[in-house]
Design brief:
mainly beta; nine-stranded antiparallel beta sheet; eight-stranded mixed beta sheet; 13% helix
C-alpha cells in the first residue's frame, strides 16, 4: 500500500446530516483551537489499582445537536502519562493546536471533547475508559458570527461518554439538561479563535476535518524552526503542471458487451424495485464522461475536470486518418475490442511532487429513460427525474517523485471498496456473471501518456504568489441572478474543440443527480479560464452546483475565446524574512557564577582596596546565587538615601578551551554605561600574571588588572581599577529614585572588553545588578566571575531557522559565540546620609508638575525698555548709560555723519562701543593737557565745543532711536507679563506629557491659534491618546472630545469662552541625540573620586533645548506665551550591538525580539493577544521598521544602515515600544556600525593563501603594527612593529590558512603603537571550502587523564621527482606530528608518525590531516575519526 492509499484509508470522513447538507452553502471559516491543560481528579483510585501504566489522551469529534449526528472524523491527541490524575490539584499539559474549517455556521454545530484513559489489565490486554466529556461551542447564538474570543476558557466536563448525546431525552440546550452531571473541580483549559491564515490551505484540507498542527498535511511545507506547527502559517509546496495525452479506457471483454450487460442489469434493477418492465431500447447511454482530479489523500485539490469520452470507432469516422492511426497504434486490443478515447490533452496545474499526491480517474455513464411504464416519452420538464448517472470504474495513479515522461497503464477498480468520489461503483466481474467471456477477464485498464510542463511555478508560500495560487484561492464573487446566460466552457470542466457534442440535455435534466460530498467541498474554489482570466459572474453562479454540467450545452465546435482581462493590482505577500535574525540577548549574554573559595583567597591576598561603608566598616558580602527580594517601600524608607555605586575590576582570566596558541592580550580596557551617566571608556589596564595561579571550576585565575601610568609603567603593588558613582537626591530628579531602584532590580550592566594594544573587541559580559539593592543595610558588595563571550556573525545567508541554546533562547544559524575568558568583578553599594535633608525653595529644582498654570504671569514688575534681561525683581536699580546697555544704539552713535548712518552688522557692535570709549578717553586727556599748559587754553576751548556738539548730535540720535523702537520695546516688555517659564527633563524616546492651563482674561470669546516653534513639541490632538497619557501620569483633569480644529497643515485652533480656563495637552518627545555621541570619549571619572555633584541639574554633554508656544487670539494678539527649557537626560541602554561591515555598503539585519512577556519593562496586565510593537530610530538616515507577521509569531526589527568610509564608527539608538501611542519605550538598543575596508578571499581549509594590502603613509612618521582577530589563521608580514613613512606606499603581506569551512568575517587592524590610535582597519570576507578527503581512519582512545596513543600512517609520493611535504592539522591540541615536514623520493612511501592527546570527555571528534606541497598547496587530506570512551 503506497502513501496515498494509506492516507486516504485513514482519513475517511462521515458526511454531515443530509438535512444539514441541503441547506444553503456559506463561506467556510477557519479556526484554531489550542487544548492547553486538563486539571482535576478525573480517575478514581480504584481504576488505578486495577490498571497499570495508565495514560490519558483527548478525542474531539463534531456533533450536530439538532439532528443528533456525529460527522467528520474523530481526532486523537498525543498520549500523556497520568500518574497524578487522582490528586485534587492534578494537571496534565497538552498544549496541542487543533485546526479545522467548516461552512456549517450554526450554533448547534459543536465539538465534543472526550477524556479517555487507557491502561493494561492484569492479563496484558489494553483497556480504554471514558472519564468524561465536554461540549465546546464553536459558534455563538448569532448564526452569522462565529466566536471571536481568543482568550483562554474553561470547558466543563460531564460524567459519561459522548454516546449519551444520541439519546432522545437529551434535547437542546444539552448543557442544561437534568440528565447531564458535571464533574466537580474538573475542567479543560482551551482557546478558540478564527484563523484566517489557514485559508490558503483550504484546497488541501477537506471541510470538517480536524487536524493537529503537528500532523503532516500533503502539499504543505514543514514548519520552519523547531515548532513543528505547519498549520499556524501554512506554506504551500511548489506546484507542477502535468499533461496527460492519448488517454483511452479498455473494458473487457469488449466495450459493446460491457455496455450491453450494464444496460441489462439496470433494466433488471428497475424491474426489481417495482418500476415496471422496460423495453430493451428504452434505456439509452447518453454520454460517457471522465472525471480527472488531483487528490492528496485527504481530498481533491481542485474540483475534478469533466471531459467526454467517445468510442474509438466514432473517432475514426469523424476525424482524419492520421488521428485514427495514432489511436490505433496506441491500442493493443483487436478491432472488436474498441476503447473509449479522449481526443484532447488534459492539463493538471495543481500537481505537487509529493508521495501522497495521486491522479484519480472516474468513468461515469449518463443514462436516460422514459418516465412511464409503457415507454412513452414525456415532456422535457418531466424528464429531470429520470436523468441519472452511474459510476462504473475508477483508478488512482500515485506517481513516484522522480517520475519522468512516459506511458502508464493502470487497472480499473470497482465494487464496494472506498473510492475518492464517495460514490457507489459498478461491480467488478465475478463468477456469477451470466456471460462466460466476462468471467475470465479483469475489470479493465486505462492507458495514457504523461509529461511535465517545461515551466514550473515558483515556490508559493501563500495563495497570492502565482496563477496556481489564484486557482487555489476561494471564490469571493457574489452570484448573479438566475436569468444570467449560460457560462462559456471552462477548461477545468469542458473538453476542447475536439470532443464531440453530447445529446441535447438541458441543465435542468441533469439536476437530479446527487451531489457527492467531495464535490460539494471542492465547489468553492475558482477554476482557471482557458486564457488565464477569472470566471465571469455567471460562471461563478454555476460553479457551486455539482449537477449542472455546462459543457453539455457549450459550443465545442468553436475555438474557446479568451475573455477580457482587466489590469489587477499586485497583492503583497505576507512578509517572510530571508535572512537569519539575531536574537536579542544571545550575542552578549554571559553567565555569571560564584567565585570559588580558592580564588577568593587569591584575590584577597593580591592587595585590592577594601570597600568600606560610611562607618569605615567592611561592606557586607552577598552571595550572587542567593535570591533577591525587592521591596520598594523598604528601599525608599531607608535613612541612607545616597547610594555610592562602586565597580572594581579585579582580574581577567583566560578560557581553558582557547588552545590554538592565541597570544593573550597584554592590556585591556572596558566600555560600558551605567544608568544615565555618560558612557565610560576606562584607561588601559595591564594584565599582570600571578605568581601562584589558583584553579577554579571554570578556569585558572591567572592575571590581575593593574592601572598604567602616563609614562607606560605600572605598579603591581596597587592592583585593580575602581570607579564610583554617587547617586543621591541632588543627582536624581523628583520621583526618579523609584526608577533607579527598578533599574537596579531588573536591568543588567553590559561590559565590552577590548584589547588595549590591537583595539579589537575581545568580548562582552553582562552582570545583573539586583544584588546592589541594600534593603536597609549600610553597604553591600558582591563578587562575580563573568564569562566574556565573543560573538561572530557570519555573512548573510537565506536561513530563518536555528537551534536552541543552553539558555533557552533561539540561536540563529550564522551566529557563533565563544567564551574568551572570565572577568572578576566586584560591585558594591555604599549608603550615605544626605548632606542637606531639607533644601530651601530656591534650591529646589523646577516644578515637576504635569499641569502648568499662567496665573503668576499676569503681573508686570516694571523695568527698562532697553534692558535685554527683562524686568528685574529688585526694587533699587542702578542707572546705566544707554549706549552701554544697547549695543545697537552704540553702533548708531559711533557712525559719521549721523544723517548717513546705516545699519551695522552684528559682528561690529562690540568694536563700535570700544572705539567710542577710546574717543572719550582721548578728549579727557586733551582737556587735562590744556589745563596744565597755559599756551594750550585756546585748544581746550575748541575741544570742549567739539564735545558739546557731539553730545547734542548723540541726544538727537538717541531720541530718534527711542521713538523708532518704543512700540517694539513696550510690546516686548508687556509680553513678559503673559509669559510662563517651565523646565522639562526629557530622555530619549520618552513622551513627556504636561497640560497648560490657558485662561481667557477677557470678557469676550476668542478663537485661539497655537503656534509652536519646535517640531519635537506637539499638541495632543487625539482624545484617546490624551486619555492614555493622563492615566499614565495620574492626572484627574477632564478630557474633552473634538477640542481642536485642524485645517490641513496649519496650526490647531480651539474656542475659548470669556474668563474660561482650559487645559491644553502637550507632548514633548525627542528621537535625536544631538551631541551626545561625543560623550563616548574617555570618562571624566577617576579611580578614587566620585562624580561631581555640583552640576547635577545640567549635563555639559547634552545641550539644553528651548521651545516656545504662543497662544494667539484673533487679529494675532497673544493671550499667553509658554517658554520651555528642555534639559535632556541620559537614558538607559538595555542592549548593545556591534556590527562590522564593509565600507560604503548597506547593512541589513533582522534582530528578533524575545517573547514580549519576558522583556524588562513590558507592561503588565495586557490582554491575551500580543501587544503592538513599534520601533523608532535616533538617526533619520537609518531605515528601521517591524512587520506584524500574525498572532503568536516572533517579531523581528529590521535595520538598513548605510556604512560610511573606513574607519568610521556610526552609532545610533533603536527604541522599542509596546503601546499604540509610543509613550514609554520598553527597550532601548545602542547599535555600533564599524565601517571597514573590504577584502574578499576565496580559499581552501588547511591551505595557505597569500595576498597583499597597500598601506599609505600619514602626515608624519608612525610606528605601527598589524593585529588580527584570528591570529592562528591570519598572519601578517611584517608581524612586528614597523615604520610607516609619511606619504609613502608600503605592502602588508597576509597569509591566510583557515581551519573551518564556511563564510565568515575576520578583522585586521593597523594600530599606532605609541598613541594607541587606529590607523586603518580591514574586514576580510572569507569564503572557505573543504578539500576532498582521500582517506578516512578511525581510532578509539580512552577519555580522561590517559597517555594518548601513537599511530602511524603511510603516504606515497605520486610524483616522479623528490618532493617536500608539510603536515598540518585542524586540531593541534588533539593531534601532534612527529615531524612537521618530510621529504620523500618519487614514487616512494613515507611513514607519518601521529601522537594523539587524550580527550577530556567522552565523545567523537573528526580530525583532518592536511598534506601540503612546498608551496603550501593541499595535495591530500586525511580524516581521522577519534572515539573517546
Amino acid at each position: 500500500m503506497n502513501d496515498w492509499h494509506r492516507i486516504f484509508a485513514q482519513n475517511v470522513l462521515v458526511p454531515p446530516h443530509p438535512q444539514r447538507a441541503r441547506q444553503l452553502s456559506k463561506e467556510s471559516t477557519a479556526f484554531q483551537c489550542v487544548l492547553k491543560w486538563l486539571e482535576g481528579p478525573l480517575i478514581k483510585q480504584g481504576i488505578l489499582e486495577v490498571l497499570s501504566q495508565v495514560e490519558c489522551h483527548l478525542r474531539v469529534s463534531f456533533f450536530d445537536v439538532t439532528y443528533r449526528h456525529f460527522f467528520g472524523r474523530t481526532w486523537k491527541s498525543t498520549v500523556k502519562p497520568t500518574k497524578q490524575l487522582s490528586r485534587q490539584l492534578s494537571r496534565i499539559v497538552f498544549n496541542e493546536p487543533l485546526y479545522f474549517h467548516t461552512s456549517l455556521n450554526h450554533p448547534n454545530i459543536v465539538a465534543v471533547v472526550e477524556v479517555v484513559t487507557e491502561g493494561k489489565k492484569q492479563d496484558g490486554t489494553l483497556q480504554t475508559l471514558s472519564c468524561g466529556f465536554g461540549i465546546l461551542r464553536i459558534f455563538s447564538n448569532k448564526p452569522e458570527s462565529p466566536t471571536c474570543a481568543s482568550q483562554d476558557k474553561r470547558l466543563r466536563l460531564y460524567h459519561g461518554t459522548p454516546r449519551a448525546l444520541l439519546h432522545p431525552l437529551l434535547q437542546d440546550p444539552v448543557e442544561q439538561n437534568r440528565h447531564m452531571t458535571l464533574i466537580e473541580n474538573c475542567s479543560l483549559q482551551y482557546s478558540l479563535k478564527p484563523h484566517p491564515a489557514l485559508e490558503p490551505a483550504f484546497p488541501l484540507l477537506p471541510e470538517n476535518l480536524l487536524m493537529s498542527g503537528l500532523q503532516q498535511v500533503p502539499g504543505l511545507l514543514p514548519a520552519p524552526g523547531d515548532t513543528g506547527d505547519a498549520l499556524r502559517k501554512p506554506r504551500l509546496q511548489k506546484s507542477v503542471t502535468w499533461y496527460l495525452d492519448d488517454l483511452f479506457f479498455t473494458l473487457y471483454p469488449s466495450l459493446e458487451k460491457f455496455e450491453e450487460e450494464l444496460l441489462e442489469l439496470l433494466v433488471s434493477d428497475h424491474f426489481r424495485e417495482g418500476g415496471g418492465v422496460l423495453d430493451s431500447g428504452a434505456l439509452e447511454i447518453l454520454e460517457r464522461r471522465l472525471h480527472v482530479g488531483v487528490h492528496n489523500g485527504l481530498g481533491f485539490v481542485q474540483r475534478p475536470q469533466v471531459v467526454v469520452l467517445v468510442p474509438e470507432m466514432d473517432v475514426a469516422l469523424t476525424r482524419s486518418a492520421s488521428f485514427s492511426r495514432k489511436v490505433g497504434s496506441s491500442s493493443k486490443t483487436s478491432s472488436g475490442n474498441q476503447a473509449l478515447v479522449l481526443r484532447s490533452r488534459l492539463r493538471l496545474p495543481e500537481m505537487v511532487k509529493h508521495p501522497a499526491f495521486a491522479i484519480v480517474f472516474q468513468l461515469e455513464y449518463v443514462f436516460n429513460s422514459p418516465s412511464g411504464v409503457d415507454g412513452n416519452a414525456t415532456s422535457a420538464t418531466s424528464l429531470s427525474s429520470l436523468a441519472c448517472m452511474h459510476t462504473v470504474r475508477w483508478a488512482a495513479w500515485n506517481p513516484s517523485l522522480g517520475a519522468g515522461p512516459g506511458r502508464v497503464t493502470l487497472p480499473l477498480q470497482g465494487g464496494i471498496q472506498l473510492n475518492p468520489f464517495h460514490r457507489l461503483v459498478y461491480k467488478v466481474p465475478s463468477a456469477s456473471m451470466s456471460s462466460e467471456e466476462v468471467k475470465q477477464v479483469e475489470s479493465g485498464t486505462v492507458q495514457f501518456q504523461f509529461s511535465l510542463s517545461s515551466e514550473e511555478h515558483q515556490d508559493i508560500p501563500t495563495e497570492h504568489a502565482s496563477s496556481t495560487g489564484a486557482e487555489r484561492r476561494p471564490s469571493r464573487k457574489p452570484p448573479t441572478s438566475p436569468s444570467s446566460p449560460p457560462a462559456p466552457a471552462l477548461q477545468g470542466l469542458a473538453a476542447t474543440q475536439d470532443s464531440p457534442v453530447g445529446p441535447g440535455l438541458s441543465l435542468s435534466q441533469l439536476a437530479a443527480s446527487s451531489q457527492s460530498p467531495a464535490q460539494r467541498r471542492s465547489a468553492r474554489p475558482t477554476l482557471q479560464q482557458p486564457g488565464g482570466s477569472r470566471p465571469s459572474p455567471a460562471q461563478a453562479q454555476e460553479l457551486p452546483l455539482e449537477g449542472r454540467i455546462s459543457h453539455l450545452e457549450a459550443d465545442l465546435s468553436q475555438t474557446s475565446s479568451v475573455l477580457e482581462t482587466s489590469i489587477e493590482q499586485l497583492q503583497e505577500l505576507p512578509f517572510t524574512p530571508l535572512h537569519a535574525p539575531i536574537v536579542v540577548g544571545t550575542q552578549t549574554r554571559s553567565s555569571a557564577s560564584q567565585i570559588s573559595r580558592a580564588s577568593m583567597v587569591l584575590l584577597q591576598s593580591s592587595g585590592f582596596p577594601e570597600i568600606l561603608d560610611a562607618n569605615n566598616q567592611p561592606a557586607e558580602a552577598v552571595n550572587p546565587t542567593d535570591p533577591v527580594k525587592f521591596n520598594p517601600q523598604k528601599e525608599e524608607s531607608d535613612c541612607l538615601q545616597s547610594n555610592e555605586i562602586v565597580l572594581q575590576f579585579l582580574a581577567f582570566s583566560r578560557a581553558a578551551q582557547d588552545y590554538r596558541g592565541t597570544p593573550w592580550p597584554k592590556t585591556v580596557y572596558f566600555t560600558f554605561q551605567f544608568y544615565r551617566f555618560p558612557p565610560v571608556t576606562t584607561p588601559r589596564l595591564q594584565l599582570v600574571k600571578l605568581d601562584t595561579a589558583g584553579k577554579t571550576g571554570s578556569g585558572p585565575l591567572s592575571h590581575v588588572l593593574v592601572p598604567i601610568n602616563k609614562d607606560g609603567a605600572f605598579d603591581a603593588g596597587s592592583p585593580g581599577f575602581q570607579l564610583k558613582y554617587m547617586v543621591d537626591p541632588r543627582f536624581l530628579k523628583p520621583g526618579e529614585q523609584r526608577w533607579f531602584l527598578r533599574y537596579l532590580a531588573a536591568q543588567t550592566l553590559q561590559l565590552d572588553v577590548w584589547d588595549g594594544d590591537s583595539l579589537l573587541l575581545i568580548g562582552s559580559a553582562a552582570v545583573q545588578m539586583k544584588h546592589l539593592l541594600r534593603q536597609g543595610r549600610p553597604a553591600v558588595q558582591v563578587s562575580h566571575e563573568l564569562e566574556v563571550v565573543a560573538t561572530e556573525y557570519e555573512q548573510d545567508m537565506v536561513v530563518v531557522s536555528g537551534d536552541v541554546s543552553r539558555l533557552g533562547s533561539v540561536r540563529p544559524i550564522g551566529v557563533h559565540t565563544v567564551v574568551k575568558g572570565w572577568l572578576h568583578l566586584t560591585l558594591a553599594n555604599v549608603g550615605h546620609s544626605c548632606e542637606q535633608r531639607v533644601r530651601k525653595s530656591s534650591a529646589l529644582p523646577p516644578s515637576r508638575s504635569r499641569v502648568i498654570s499662567n496665573d503668576g504671569a499676569g503681573r508686570f514688575c516694571g523695568g527698562s525698555l532697553l534692558m535685554s534681561g527683562g524686568p528685574r525683581p529688585a526694587r533699587v536699580v542702578q542707572a546705566q548709560k544707554l549706549a552701554d546697555v544697547d549695543s545697537e544704539l552704540a553702533a548708531v552713535l559711533l557712525s559719521r555723519p549721523p544723517g548717513s548712518a546705516g545699519p551695522r552688522s552684528a559682528g561690529r557692535e562690540a568694536d563700535a562701543v570700544r572705539r567710542r570709549k577710546l574717543e572719550r578717553m582721548r578728549a579727557v586727556r586733551l582737556q587735562e593737557a590744556g589745563a596744565e599748559c597755559s599756551g594750550g587754553r585756546r585748544t581746550s576751548v575748541l575741544a570742549q565745543q567739539s564735545i558739546r556738539a557731539q553730545h547734542l548730535r548723540d541726544l538727537q540720535v538717541i531720541d530718534a532711536y527711542r521713538e523708532r523702537t518704543k512700540a517694539e520695546s513696550i510690546a516686548s516688555v508687556l509680553s513678559l507679563a503673559i509669559t510662563t517659564h517651565h523646565t522639562l527633563y526629557a530622555t530619549l524616546g520618552t513622551a513627556e506629557f504636561f497640560e497648560f492651563a490657558l485662561k481667557n482674561p477677557h470678557n469676550t470669546q476668542h478663537t485661539v491659534t497655537i503656534e509652536i516653534d519646535n517640531p519635537e513639541l506637539s499638541v495632543v490632538l487625539d482624545s484617546r491618546e490624551w486619555r492614555y497619557l493622563k492615566d499614565a501620569a495620574g492626572l484627574l483633569t477632564p478630557v474633552e472630545e473634538d477640542m481642536f480644529r485642524l485645517q490641513g497643515s496649519l496650526s490647531p485652533q480651539l474656542y475659548l469662552r470669556p474668563r474660561e480656563v482650559i487645559h491644553i495637552p502637550f507632548k514633548y518627545q525627542s528621537f535625536s541625540m544631538g551631541q551626545l555621541a561625543q560623550a563616548q570619549a574617555s570618562a571624566e571619572l577617576h579611580s578614587e573620586e566620585g562624580t561631581d555633584a555640583g552640576s547635577t541639574w545640567k549635563s555639559s554633554t547634552m545641550p539644553t533645548k528651548h521651545a516656545k508656544v504662543v497662544f494667539r487670539a484673533s487679529r494675532g494678539k497673544p493671550l499667553a506665551v509658554l517658554c520651555l527649557t528642555v534639559e535632556p537626560q541620559p537614558h538607559v541602554v538595555d542592549q548593545v550591538f556591534r556590527f562590522c561591515h564593509p565600507e560604503l555598503t548597506f547593512l541589513k539585519k533582522a534582530i528578533r525580539l524575545p517573547p514580549w512577556r519576558t522583556l524588562p519593562g513590558a507592561p503588565m496586565g495586557m490582554p491575551a493577544d500580543d501587544p503592538p510593537v513599534h520601533v523608532r530610530c535616533s538617526d533619520p538616515n537609518v531605515i528601521c521598521e517591524t512587520q506584524n507577521v500574525g498572532p503568536g509569531e516572533p517579531r523581528d526589527v529590521f535595520l538598513k544602515v548605510a556604512s560610511g568610509p573606513s574607519p568610521e564608527i556610526k552609532d545610533f539608538f533603536v527604541i522599542i515600544y509596546m503601546d499604540h501611542w509610543l509613550a514609554v519605550p520598553v527597550q532601548t538598543w545602542q547599535v555600533y556600525l564599524h565601517s571597514l575596508k573590504r577584502v574578499d578571499v576565496s580559499c581552501v581549509t588547511g591551505q595557505l593563501t597569500r595576498l597583499s594590502l597597500v598601506l599609505r603613509g600619514m602626515q608624519t612618521v608612525r610606528k605601527v603594527r598589524a593585529f588580527t582577530s584570528h591570529p592562528w589563521e591570519l598572519k601578517t608580514d611584517p608581524s612586528g612593529v614597523f615604520v610607516l613613512a609619511p606619504h609613502g606606499v608600503q605592502d602588508l603581506h597576509i597569509g591566510l590558512r583557515p581551519w573551518r569551512a564556511g563564510s565568515r568575517f575576520m578583522r585586521l587592524n593597523l594600530v599606532d603603537v605609541d598613541y594607541h590610535q587606529l590607523v586603518a582597519s580591514w574586514l576580510v570576507c572569507l569564503s572557505c571550502r573543504q578539500p576532498l578527503i582521500s582517506k578516512a581512519f578511525e581510532i578509539t582512545l580512552a577519555a580522561g587523564e590517559g597517555k594518548g596513543a601513537h599511530k602511524r600512517i603511510t603516504y606515497t609520493n605520486p610524483y616522479p621527482a623528490r618532493r617536500t611535504f608539510h603536515l598540518h592539522s585542524d586540531h593541534p591540541d588533539l593531534l601532534h606530528f612527529k615531524e612537521d615536514s618530510f621529504q620523500v623520493g618519487g614514487g616512494e612511501t613515507h611513514t607519518i608518525g601521529l601522537q594523539f592527546a587524550p580527550g577530556q570527555r567522552a565523545g567523537e571528534e573528526e580530525i583532518l590531516i592536511y598534506i601540503n606541497d612546498h608551496e603550501d598547496k593541499n595535495e591530500e587530506t586525511f580524516c581521522v575519526k577519534v572515539i573517546y570512551q
